[in-house]
Amino acid sequence: MTTSSKHAARRKVALVTGASGGIGEATARALAKAGYSVFGTSRRQAAGSTPDGVRMLSLDVTSDSSVAEAVATIEAEAGGIDLLVNNAGVGLMGAAEEISIAQVHGLFETNVYGLMRMTNAVLPIMRRQRSGRIVNLSSIMGLIPAPFSAHYAASKHAVEGYSESLDHEVRDFGIRVVLVEPGMTRSAFESNVGRGDRPIADYGKGRAQVAGWFSEGMKAADTAESVAEKILIAAEAKDPKLRYATGKGTGLIALLRRVVPSSAFDKSVRKQMRLA
């Protein structure tokens, strides 16, 4: 049997990082319901029950050996990987000056290098298959300024540039790379948001104003399930778009970022985030 016929004979296989809760868990459930053979991963063992149809594995995206071991296990058990959802991520809030470089290293190790590490581990399998889809979780903050979340925004801007560039490199192998850009979402992410480790009093007022804006926004935030629905669309599209915005107003924000004069957009950001 040829490689292509073996591939056609099996169920599609999906690998979802950060699947112990929130968007990752909702995505794993949605993919299993859609007929995928789903492998979810988490750095720590999930506290709740494993979603039906999902095989959970231990994986630390910041470790080369952990990533290699998990990917090898999936390939051995399932015969390939058709979809990678790079969802694992952490947040970091505070004025840029309040955050140490050590904290920034930790943030990028998960949000950027971890995503790249996972991609590098899966791409050889997808190239051999001559097919595959990689869905990278970005954020609306990968498109706009994010006062008091500058390093988080920088990590997502990096994911945007990396993903758009990589998509051009792998198309000849039948592989596509797409971005899903959530807005505010009710998920386990909030529990993974770190704070600056060297607070400075001068930034207290601005930090509190942005925190108030964030808290208000979370009251009307979208669900993890709504983001999972968009991830499934991005995964299944025959001719995928590069970017899929999800959440209230995120598509409009992305449009305005491109067409509104920078000075007007700057004023709008400051007003919305209560810095004006």
UniProtKB/TrEMBL annotation:
SMART domains: PKS_KR. InterPro entries: KR_dom (IPR057326), NAD(P)-bd_dom_sf (IPR036291), SDR_fam (IPR002347), SDR_oxidoreductase (IPR051911). Signal peptide: none annotated. Keywords: Oxidoreductase. The keyword Oxidoreductase applies. SUPFAM superfamilies: NAD(P)-binding Rossmann-fold domains. CDD domains: 17beta-HSD-like_SDR_c. Coiled coil: none annotated. It holds the Pfam family adh_short. The keyword Translocase does not apply. Transmembrane segments: none annotated. NCBIfam families: PRK06179.1. This is Oxidoreductase. It comes from Jiella pelagia. The lineage of its organism: Bacteria, Pseudomonadati, Pseudomonadota, Alphaproteobacteria, Hyphomicrobiales.
